[in-house]
Amino acid sequence: MKILNSNDKNFNEEFDKLVNRSNLDMQNVMSIVTNIINDIKNRGDEALSEQIAKFDRWEVKDNLAISTDEMKKAYENISDELKNALQIACDRIKKYHEKQLEKTWLSFEENGSILGQKVTPVDRAGLYIPGGKAAYPSSLLMNALPAIVAGVKDIVVCTPAVEGKVNELLLAAMHLLGIKEAYKVGGASAVAAMAYGTKTIKKVDVITGPGNIFVATAKKLVFGDVNIDMIAGPSEIGVIADDSANPRNIAIDLLSQAEHDELASSFLVTFNDQFANSVKDEIYAILPTLSREKIARASIDNKSAIIVAKDMNECVELMNALAVEHLEIATDNAFDYLPRIKHAGAIFLGHYTPEAIGDYLAGPNHTLPTGGSARFFSPLGVSNFMKKSSIISMNKQGIDELGEACMSLAKAEGLGAHGLSVKVRFDS
């Protein structure tokens, strides 16, 4: 794992590479994904079955749908310990997202005008949940519960299957959430099917959920025909720490993201040289003990860095520039730095708040902006499953007060019918 010092002559050049880590080479897969989408649009279920055979490597011999009986059976087969853990996660995530719920509102002006905003859930939401080698029931909770809180009528889940079979814990989570519609299809094919519809899978209004570069590229291409949450890349963590932190704890936290994916990124920013080296030593001591050592080592060696800054002020400045998905502030006075953090998907404060607690059951959503996109994207939430309509109502007094100004603006823009539509009411 490389250590960069902000005093180094080539620091800016090396740091820029970290800041620009989001340059996923979508061009390499763009033509492939475009062909997949067009094939689904043109041939529907037939193309979907062929693509499942090609990419997910199993033959579709019957319905792609996952039955509620399968979900119920899987739930009954998991341990009481896992049932309890899922329920705790569900309760906490739902309670957190209920606080995000926006309401319709109206305001009444003295002239009788009424203005407001109507908040309405989308009719149909599509959730993409990773499967295959890495199945994440926690991602289902994080995507489904905001949609449930929003009041979405139809929630559709798509997840890839291994040899036609879906992860048991994921099925159990579907049962707990009351999912009624789910399909064994993954990758760009699933995104295309949800975006444009097939005979089997009806078109949705919004698609959310994480995925690989094919999924991310597909979401980018279908945006506008449907809404999406964000275009997310590989997972990442950033840690600001001083010598009050435990080097072993920080090393494990960095590895918790590295084990996700060879392309995941882990960053430590500190102003203490000795602490930086201690964390690095701990990382390489712990790596051989991990079940996903090969994946984690590739991430640590190729996509991660420890940065030694001049002081804590520069630590904060550099981390804001990185705009990471998960940000831990591991200091005794972590809350003191919170007002100065501008860009992060989720912020974990203090020595007893590992990023993993947010992944599973703290409550806030773990579907977060990556690759520096925390500068302009927010975590997945209830608002992703809702839309807003403006409300306007004028009476005679209101149009009398505002009509002249409105007609002046319409005339200035050369839109005569606009002005006339006000004038006929203004004059009446």
From TrEMBL:
Cofactor binding: number and manner: Binds 1 zinc ion per subunit.
Sites where the protein binds Zn(2+): 257, 260, 359, 418
Broadest EC class assigned to this enzyme: oxidoreductase
Catalytic activity from the UniProt record: L-histidinol + 2 NAD(+) + H2O = L-histidine + 2 NADH + 3 H(+)
Residue positions of the active site: 325 (proton acceptor), 326 (proton acceptor)
CC cofactor: Zn(2+)
Gene3D superfamilies: 1.20.5.1300, Nitrogenase molybdenum iron protein domain
Pathway: Amino-acid biosynthesis; L-histidine biosynthesis; L-histidine from 5-phospho-alpha-D-ribose 1-diphosphate: step 9/9
EC number(s) stated in the UniProt entry for this protein: 1.1.1.23
Residue positions binding substrate: 235, 257, 260, 326, 359, 413, 418
Origin superkingdom: Bacteria
One of the record's GO cellular component terms: cytosol
Name of one Pfam family that matches: Histidinol_dh
UniProt keyword annotations, A-Z: Amino-acid biosynthesis, Histidine biosynthesis, Metal-binding, NAD, Oxidoreductase, Zinc
Molecular function GO labels: histidinol dehydrogenase activity; NAD binding; zinc ion binding
GO BP term (any one): L-histidine biosynthetic process
Annotated family: Belongs to the histidinol dehydrogenase family.
Biological function: Catalyzes the sequential NAD-dependent oxidations of L-histidinol to L-histidinaldehyde and then to L-histidine.
PANTHER family found in the cross-reference section: HISTIDINE BIOSYNTHESIS TRIFUNCTIONAL PROTEIN, HISTIDINOL DEHYDROGENASE HDH
HAMAP family: HisD (MF_01024)
NCBIfam families registered for this protein in UniProt: hisD
Protein name, as recorded: Histidinol dehydrogenase
Organism: Campylobacter iguaniorum
